[in-house]
Design brief:
Largest sheet: 8 strands, mixed
Shape: elongated
Low-confidence stretches: 719-724
Strand order of the largest sheet: 14-13-12-11-10-9-8-15
Length: 724
């Protein structure tokens, strides 16, 4: 059993037995004062055992309790030696020394390390004013007005209830103090409240029930000792920054205290006593003033909290920048008096950062971007995060030329890499800028310009009317593509991939066609509007079904494999690998007959795209890197991405017959593929001379117009165009 609980039980039993002792017996004095001394010893034990931060406050409190015990002992000793106790006497002096020590100790203990709140003090003052009014009217003033007692005796008499009022304030502060209310604090509060209540009864009872009242004082000692002995005594007041809550309970308490004025007035009038108008008037004014101050503080606190909430509602949680709501409000205000410049900025490659390094790194990157943009602006305009990886800048008073200079500066700042969580990250940005007097329209224009910057890879773009025409054209083209896909208007053609030097067809590459529209036009649009996902699935299923049909029709003359181009958007689509597996199973095609062609750019960022490629490779599908040599860090990709085929870009083949860098690079690439055990395919072969040079360099597979253009049905008869 815990020591504080043992002390509580034992002390309570002693207090319960105390009134049963015979009046005037020596045991009364010994038990009463003995328990007080033991309580002081228990408090000292608790201080030494738990070593609280506010140790000095606890020692001060213990000294106050000791003074109480000393005063009680002095009172008993005087009564033992003197037939009649003088009043006031030395014991009263000791009592009045005890009160300041108790008050100082309790106030310091309850304060802890938290922030000092004036509201709590005002609450305590309101309660003290109400209690003080009652004491003054019914105890203090009648005592002071009694001419039968000497003035000094009357002052001492009213000093006790005055100290009780101060103790009432202390109890109020103990209970109302913000922070965690631990067990030790409740025990301290209970002891103070009990001591205060017994003093009130004693003042009204004239000592008629001295035994029971003394038991109450003793129980207060027990509670104080238990508070010091409890382990939580070192944690009182250790919740920093908390504010007192103006809840229902506090409102009822303060409202009840303000009713003491009419209550005193009613009681005096009902009892037939002369109404103490001056005291009641002063009490009413004091209470009214304190309540007004308290309500003023509450209203001020509410307004501050409202302002803080409004500030939070207008700020981005992650970066601390203005959010979309604040940006739009400021834009609306700026548009009423002029034509503000609006810049929209969208990061390039941010999704790859999230996929490759995780969202925590992505968040830290956004914070770093916001900090760099803010530092570059030097307070010019309002910088906001609109959501995701999109930022916006409002320049309320800048001219178009000034806006372009600022935006160009921002674009330059983002070209430098960001050091984030041990990673060197390089992210670009698509930036669009526009001006106008209509908030919604200027935002739309900036968005159109940003979109144009993204598609053209420009440093930034300013809105012009022609961009709307281009956007409208792309929207129209997207709608027509949607209808064409639903109507089955897309077709596939197949370009041979032949062996060198005999030109025999070994594989075919499937390519999509749509009427007279160039794939270079409609494929990028499909990638941007997301239609490439559905279109790509149709291409995959159609090509695999055609390959199975050719195998059945041509037998040994059928192509060994068929390749399908897959975009970065498709690789990032959830379930893409399942689509490929379902297609193979549905057509009955072996995974080894399928080649999935991806660009270096699609897998450079890692993350979801690389995982999809790895899962396809595990499925048995062959992976080809298309346009090899023109993307990012090509050789590095060969270490991180499972690759079976390298398709050497046409740019290295065009000038192959000329001595120089192209021949050197083409030679190096075939050596790399041979060394890694990969298959090399030379793209864009248009002449017999190119085919012959490639064969001499070591290439054994080629593709280009020299061997055959893309057609719906290549000639699978075992005879092709020789290398020359």
């Amino acid at each position: 059993m815990r020591s504080w609980w043992v002390w509580m039980v034992a002390g309570a039993l002693v207090c319960a037995a105390y009134p049963l002792l015979p009046d005037g017996h020596l045991a009364l004095t010994l038990v009463y004062n003995g328990l007080g001394l033991v309580a002081v010893a228990v408090i000292v034990t608790g201080i030494r055992r738990h070593r609280p931060t506010a140790a000095l406050a606890w020692w001060t409190f213990a000294a106050g309790v000791l003074c109480f015990v000393a005063a009680d002992t002095t009172y008993e000793v005087i009564g033992f030696f003197l037939a009649e106790r003088p009043y006031p006497f030395w014991d009263d002096l000791v009592y009045f020394v005890a009160y300041p020590l108790l008050v100082a100790g309790l106030m310091t203990i309850s304060r802890g390390r938290g922030r000092r709140e004036p509201a709590g003090r005002i609450d305590a003052a309101i309660i003290a004013a109400g209690v003080g009014l009652v004491y003054w009217v019914f105890v203090i003033q009648p005592t002071l007005g009694d001419p039968s007692e000497p003035l000094f005796a009357r002052l001492v008499t009213v000093g006790y209830p005055t100290c009780d009022v101060v103790m009432c304030v202390v109890v109020t502060r103990l209970v109302s103090r913000p922070g965690t209310r631990v067990t030790s604090l409740w025990l301290l509060t209970a002891g103070c409240a009990l001591n205060f209540a017994v003093d009130v009864v004693w003042s009204l009872d004239d000592g008629a029930h001295a035994g029971h009242l003394n038991a109450g004082y003793m129980l207060a000692y027990v509670l104080w000792g238990a508070a010091a002995l409890h382990p939580s005594m070192s944690r009182i007041g250790q919740t920093p920054g908390a504010r007192p809550r103006f809840g229902r309970g506090r409102l009822v308490l303060l409202g009840g205290v303000t009713m003491t004025v009419p209550a005193v007035l009613f009681l005096q009038g009902a009892s037939g006593e002369e109404i103490n108008w001056s005291a009641i008037g002063v009490g009413a004014v004091v209470l009214f003033a304190l309540v007004v101050i308290r309500l003023g503080g509450f209203v001020g606190q509410t307004q501050r909290q409202s302002a803080e909430l409004e500030q939070l509602a207008m700020r981005d949680d992650l970066t601390g920048l203005a959010n979309r709501r604040l940006f739009e409000l400021r834009l609306r205000a700026a548009a009423e008096s002029g034509a503000p410049q609006v810049c929209l900025l969208d990061l390039n490659g941010f999704k790859q950062v999230n996929d490759r390094h995780g969202h925590a790194v992505g968040d830290h990157l956004l914070i770093a971007v916001a900090a760099r943009l803010g530092a570059e602006l030097h307070g010019e305009g309002l910088l906001a995060r609109m959501g995701g990886d999109e930022f916006a800048l409002l320049l309320a008073d800048a001219t178009a030329a000034e806006g372009d200079v600022i935006v160009d500066r921002l674009a330059g700042a983002l070209r430098e890499p960001f050091a984030v969580d041990g990673h060197e990250l390089l992210v670009g940005a698509a930036i669009g800028i526009a001006d106008g007097t209509e908030p919604v329209e200027v935002l739309r224009r900036a968005d159109v310009a940003m979109y144009a910057a993204k598609t053209t890879k420009a440093r930034f773009r300013r809105y012009v009317v022609e961009l709307d025409d281009r956007a409208d054209e792309e929207a129209r083209l997207g709608a027509e593509m949607r209808a064409a896909l639903d109507a089955g208007q897309f077709t596939l053609v197949y370009q041979p991939i032949v062996s060198l030097p005999d030109g025999e067809i070994r594989y075919v590459e499937s390519l999509v066609r749509w009427g007279r529209s160039s794939p270079a036009v409609f494929i990028p649009v499909a990638e941007r509007n997301g239609l490439i996902v559905e279109l790509g699935e149709w291409i995959l299923r159609t090509a695999c079904a055609q390959f199975v049909a050719w195998q059945a029709a041509y037998g040994e003359f059928a192509p060994e494999r068929i390749s399908v181009n897959v975009s970065a958007r498709q690789l990032a689509e959830p379930g893409f690998v399942e689509v490929v597996a379902d297609t193979l199973a549905g057509t009955g095609m072996a995974p080894g007959h399928l080649i999935v062609e991806v660009t270096e750019t699609a897998v450079f960022g890692g993350g979801v795209a690389v995982r999809a490629v790895e899962e396809l490779h595990e499925l048995g599908v062959n992976i080809a890197l298309d346009d090899f040599g023109t993307g990012h860090s090509s050789l590095g990709l060969l270490q991180t991405v499972p690759v079976d085929v390298l398709k050497v870009d046409k740019s290295f083949v065009d000038n192959l017959a000329m001595a120089g860098r192209h021949a050197v690079i083409a030679t190096a690439l075939i050596q790399v593929t041979d060394g890694l055990g990969l298959t090399a395919v030379a793209e864009g072969v248009e002449t017999a001379e190119q085919a012959r040079s490639l064969y001499e360099l070591g290439y054994r597979l080629a593709q280009g117009y020299h061997f055959g253009r893309p057609v719906p049905e290549p000639a699978f008869n075992g005879i092709g165009v020789a290398a020359g």
